[in-house]
Write a sequence for this structure.
């Protein structure tokens, strides 16, 4: 059965800390891995990764994929209270006629002032 | 550019009633996906549609649930004879094309409460 596993499930840090969120996956036909940030409403897209070893970066956030070891990490440096959210990892499985985006349960990040 | 629009934001139904959730994709997007999210759970895929066609409904419960995406108008997720276990947040997402090259863009969701 396909699965996407995120760790830790929750994390509490103080402003200024650096955090690393983990996502491992096991799917039939890996195509790409995506990270989303979910606050109260819609998950918002952060990164999409298809190739191993190539870091994607956006401000204080960065992410990298390891297709050999089947995992990805999302790093957030100099955290701020506005980074508090649930971070979702999803893997696009290309099996079947169209495939679908399979989500992990998320990591709930709380950043304290 | 308007994003993915879902309505209503909150919906309360008594057991046995019908729930209809609407989703208008982003302009130019012809692929629509419905996901369900329970507390402490990730987003669970339900169904993937293109205009007038259901492409993949492998995540849909076999009974009481149906979805459509007509040629004109929004996509509709319909739940008949709702039960308490249907209470959840239902998210719609759209994309320009399907597959790994096209991230999904999500709406704000409809929170269904069954009393």
């Amino acid at each position: 059965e396909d699965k996407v596993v995120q760790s830790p499930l929750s994390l509490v840090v103080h402003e200024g800390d650096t955090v690393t969120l983990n996502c491992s996956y096991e799917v039939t036909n890996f195509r790409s891995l995506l990270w989303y940030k979910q606050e109260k409403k819609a998950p918002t897209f952060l990164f999409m990764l298809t190739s191993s070893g190539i870091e994607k970066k956006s401000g204080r956030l960065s992410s990298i994929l390891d297709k050999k070891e089947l995992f990805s990490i999302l790093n957030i440096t100099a955290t701020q209270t506005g980074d508090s959210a649930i971070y979702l990892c999803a893997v696009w499985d290309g099996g079947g006629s169209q495939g679908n985006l399979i989500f992990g349960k998320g990591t709930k990040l709380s950043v304290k002032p | 550019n308007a994003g993915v629009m879902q309505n209503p934001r909150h919906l309360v139904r008594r057991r046995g009633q019908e729930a209809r959730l609407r989703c208008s994709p982003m302009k130019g997007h012809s692929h629509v996906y419905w996901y369900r999210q329970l507390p402490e759970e990730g987003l669970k895929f339900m169904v993937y549609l293109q205009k007038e066609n259901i492409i993949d409904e492998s995540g849909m419960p076999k009974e009481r649930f149906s979805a459509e995406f007509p040629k004109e108008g929004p996509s509709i997720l319909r739940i008949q004879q709702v039960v308490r276990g249907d209470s959840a947040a239902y998210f719609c997402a759209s994309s320009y094309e399907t597959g790994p090259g096209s991230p999904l863009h999500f709406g704000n969701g409809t929170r269904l409460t069954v009393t």
Observations:
- Chain B has a mean pLDDT of 91.
